[in-house]
TrEMBL record:
Keywords: Heme, Iron, Metal-binding. It comes from uncultured Aureispira sp. This is Cytochrome c. GO terms for molecular function: electron transfer activity; heme binding; metal ion binding. It comes from the Bacteria. InterPro entries: Cyt_c-like_dom, Cyt_c-like_dom_sf, Cytochrome_c-type_DH. Gene3D superfamilies: Cytochrome c-like domain. Residues 11-100 form the Cytochrome c domain. The keyword Heme applies.
Length: 120
């Protein structure tokens, strides 16, 4: 059975949405707005453009220290999301990068794998 590119992207996006709901939504909220001054927004986040595929390392390893998102400083940090495969991380990133008005070209699995290898 052949799949069009659109169907593959839709599947990736939908799987990413389910994984986001399970692993990310508690802090970043269902609409990606974050939680006030504690957790940064992902919707319209300027950081996503600058970090790009490097966000895979943030998902895998977490983030400590201060982070600036849309001119607001956040200090809470982020715990690593343990046990996700590179495919799952790719799907989460593609969801985040294309939800809530965010628009970015879909990230390829090999890009995420290279990023994860670099941050080991």
């Amino acid at each position: 059975m052949a799949f069009s590119c659109g169907n593959s992207r839709e599947k990736t996006y939908n799987e990413g949405a389910m994984l986001y709901e399970k692993h990310c939504e508690n802090c970043h909220m269902s609409d990606g707005t974050g939680l006030e001054a504690l957790y940064p927004p992902l919707a319209g986040a300027d950081m996503l453009q600058s970090v790009g595929v490097g966000a895979a390392c943030i998902i895998k390893n977490g983030l400590q220290g201060k982070i600036m998102v849309n001119g607001v400083e956040f200090e809470t940090g982020m715990a690593p999301v343990v046990g996700l495969s590179s495919v799952e991380i790719t799907n989460i990133l593609n969801y985040i990068h294309n939800a809530w008005g965010n628009r970015r070209e879909f990230i390829k699995l090999n890009e995420v794998e290279a990023s994860l290898k670099a941050c080991e």
